[in-house]
Amino acid sequence: MRPNRPVYLDNHATTPLDPRVLAAMRPWWEENFANPHSVEHAMGREAEEAVEAARAELAGLIGAEAREIVLTSGATEANNLAIKGAARFAAGQGTERRRVITLATEHKCVLESVRDLAAEGFEPVVLPVGPDGLLDLDLLREAVDGRTLLVSVMAVNNEIGVVQDLEAIGAIAKAAGALFHTDAAQGVGRIPLDVEDIQADLLSMSGHKIYGPKGIGALYVRRRPRVRLAPLFSGGGQERGLRSGTLPAPLVVGLGEAARVAGVEAMLDAGRIAGQRDRFLAALRAEVPEIRVNGHAERRVAGNLNITFPGGIDAQALMAAAPEVCVSTGSACSSAAIEPSYVLRALGIPEAEARATLRIGIGRFTSPADVDRAAAALAAGWHAAVAGASR
């Protein structure tokens, strides 16, 4: 690692590649580069076996069967396939269920997928959340009825880190005969997740959120009772006809290894990361006592802090004043937007405060020295920004 490298605290946007994952992938670039669908020859069959072993690791992480895992390019594709695929298949079967329910704080790929279905005759319903970022279950019960086809609720919010009550949400959806989908990109490998416990029909995952490679993800599709989807695009019929295209064997192997490591170390990671989070917050509060953490205080993943700074200092100015720390103002997918975070606005946070908010993501490889250095840099940057604004 080069000297004076910035402290990386943006693990919600992407996690660094675990060295064990890189080691697992290398042979599939350098030694056996065969197409895993070329099963007519030995190298192709070997690649196929590696893909299936990785699929089994991923399935085991969420309590699923390997044949229920559909490999995709990432969680965005998985979310699109789950939501649009379920709706379009149902429409082709002449269903009268046209309501698709989600939350105002979902990732944009979920919100846009749900909204896109309005042009196809579906009824999008976007429910609000409380000031703590959690869904009011009574509000969901009121919205779910016999017209509801699908409920899509994120497991862990990518900005404020809150963990929704998936077991209760799944039960409400099932009681009404609706499908339940969860975008678990930020949850898999961070919190315990079992598709049977939460009664999920569809669950989306991403490699680069669990210390795996970018460009690979997966969608769990329940087999019993069977959930049917219409594919998003046409091709060679790979992945049981749901996701055509040649599978990138090295990336799939990396995803499998990341899942294996998470299955063994997730709870150890969570305890260590929570300690680093508390250390960071205590150090920052010692210098800037008026900071506020957004989202429910307890129902959140270990590594997340969404912090509003006092004094009306714009978060972009604060980041510029502390260039040795890599943090963000919200979802990487929304980083080009000039408006404040829609997630924070959904919590009722005023625009000026939303603009003064940073997302801190602590991860597996964050050290005590990292959090100490980052807290000191952000505190110094805030004081400098306040002093500059008062001139």
From TrEMBL:
**Catalyzed reaction equations:** (sulfur carrier)-H + L-cysteine = (sulfur carrier)-SH + L-alanine
Pfam entry (one): Aminotran_5
The cofactors required by this protein are: pyridoxal 5'-phosphate
Query: What is a single molecular function from GO for this protein?
Result: 2 iron, 2 sulfur cluster binding
Keyword Iron-sulfur attributed: yes
Which keywords, in A-to-Z order, does the entry hold? 2Fe-2S, Iron, Iron-sulfur, Metal-binding, Pyridoxal phosphate, Transferase
Enumerate the spans annotated as Aminotransferase class V domain: 7-373
Source taxon at top rank: Bacteria
EC nos: 2.8.1.7
Q: Which GO terms describe its cellular component?
A: cytosol
Asked if the record carries the keyword rRNA-binding, the reply is: no
Give the family, as the similarity comment puts it.
Belongs to the class-V pyridoxal-phosphate-dependent aminotransferase family. NifS/IscS subfamily.
* Role of this protein: Catalyzes the removal of elemental sulfur atoms from cysteine to produce alanine. Seems to participate in the biosynthesis of the nitrogenase metalloclusters by providing the inorganic sulfur required for the Fe-S core formation.
- The protein, known as: Cysteine desulfurase
| Highest classification ranks of the organism | Bacteria, Pseudomonadati, Pseudomonadota, Alphaproteobacteria, Acetobacterales
